[in-house]
Amino acid sequence: MSDVVLQTEGLSKHFGAVKAVESLDLEVRRGEVYGFLGPNGSGKTTTISMVLGLLHPSAGQVTVLGRIVTPTKTEALAEVGSLVGVPGMVPHLSGRKNLELLAALHKDVGGERIHEILELVDLTGAADRKVKGYSLGMRQRLGLGAALLHRPELLILDEPTNGLDPAGMREIRELLRRLADQGITVFLSSHLLHEIEQVCDRVTVLAKGRAVATGRVEDLLGGSEVVRLRVRDTRKTADALATLPSIGEIRPNGHWVEVEGARSEDVIVHLVARDLVPSEVITSKADLESVFLTLTE
Predict the structure, then answer these.
(1) Chain centre to alpha carbon of residue 138
(2) Separation of alpha carbons 268 and 156, rounded Å
(3) pTM, to two decimals
(4) Which CATH fold would you assign to the domain 4-220?
(5) Nearest Cα to 248, choosing from 225, 265, 271, 231?
(6) Where are the CATH 3.30.70.100 domain residues in the chain?
(7) Tens digit of pLDDT for each residue in 181-195?
(8) pLDDT at res. 183
(9) For residue 249, pLDDT beyond 70
(10) Which residues in the chain are classed under CATH 3.40.50.300?
(11) How far apart are alpha carbons 157 and 138 in whole angstroms?
(12) Which of 45, 60, 155, 226 has the CB geometry, 3.0–4.6 Å to 11, for a possible disulfide?
């Protein structure tokens, strides 16, 4: 069985002179939460529409679970669940009744599976309440439950936390991690930086229809700290730090020395061993926001 669940090769979509998506290569692996990050209008939803067989590509192809997907070739989508926008539910019916209606569209999805789904999305206590009384976060979790009814191998989500308050966002993030732990591959499209940073294993950053970066989140963030040290003698401190293995850039500035490429613990131990004790230490790491702005600008 291939480790690649979703792949695009040279995927492009043009609307006249507008290149909504251009030469996009993606490779999503089994069991990961894959982030698809970009500002609004960057081509994320257009890409998802092609992946779900709703749009013909202008060029390139989409492969899901080893099978090509187009609007006329959708067999592979039987193993895919999706949630795009706010889920459409019957508001005067309960959450359970809504799932029962949707379960009738699938073989081998009965009451036991509905019970499992309600537990999975933490709606057992509200299962028999009418959906019109649900909060937006509860509706989103019910929509995720509906997408999971038929036990898909791949779950595709387009901005699933749009409009949610911080508590609702946290609920969705925790659910996505639980799904990944159960072996379900999640493809998460979002323009929310903190959402991608907190939940995703790998990410592709999209700008103006093109991928500008792909990799593990921690790799995109750089991994190393920026350490600022308040010291008595910046020149002597900088010279001492130059002998520290793996040290990167050293920048003396007034009463401070700023260094990159080494852990703060290693920097402090190195200086203390040479009787150079900093009076203040400040550490920081690059966050996804600064990386995102650099890439998309």
Answers:
(1) 20
(2) 45
(3) 0.77
(4) Rossmann fold (3.40.50)
(5) 225
(6) 226-286
(7) 888 999 999 887 777
(8) 87
(9) yes
(10) 4-220
(11) 16
(12) 60
